[in-house]
Design a protein that fits this description.
Elements lengths: L5 H19 L4 H37 L10 E4 L4 E3 L7 E7 L6 H20 L3 E7 L7 H8 L7 E4 L2 H10 L23 E5 L5 E6 L4 H19 L4
Parallel strand pairs: 3-4, 4-5
Antiparallel strand pairs: 1-2, 1-5, 3-6, 6-7
Amino acid sequence: MRRPGVKEQLQRRGYSAERDRAAVGVFTPLSAALFVAAGTGLFFYFRYEKARLIEEREKERASKAYGRPKLGGPFSLATHDGKTFTEKDLEGKWSLVYFGFTNCPDICPAEMDKVTEIMNTVEKEYGNIFQPVFVTVDPARDTPARVAKYLEDFHQRYIGLIGDYDTTKGVCKAYRVYFSTPPNADPNGDYLVDHSIFVYLMDPEGKFVDAFGQNVTAEDAIQKIREAVVDWKQETGNVV
């Protein structure tokens, strides 16, 4: 067999080197630099887009809250079973807050029944993420024992809240609730109390979402609550 000459060997080596260069192709220093630059650009672009989306989400959330009346604030009341309840206890759950009194002949029971119907429905759909709250506007007569007895006719997880007159007045002012109980009311007196008739929906941060008046049906309130939970989940990723 004839051995390849020197010229043929050089030609083969040249062809091999060209083939290697062709194989490397895009991995030249310039193309590598362009690749790194493109990757860096994409990284900062996606980081910018993420920050922009978060900012837009926060603006959307703020715009939804804008125009809502500023209701609520710090308070400290006693529950019907003797525990302290503050505005912090509204956090972590959706709350349905109603102001009334146990001697109310018809309106309060009807609204409390409505809240019970709402609770029974939304708990089946979402679980134990709601709490119904009853705040008495008749501190002279509504003792913890009396409130506890009154709540037996409504949803089992109702929380009754009681305070002295000044504390009650302060909470009512924070929630823009009107009530006519005089500061020197006779605990044994037979009187009625005029008061605002609203069920307040508060979000898991204890902030006001909506108010359901006497003419709002349980079905309408349930639908509004569903919409509020959907909005909350879109904003936070959770239902509470």
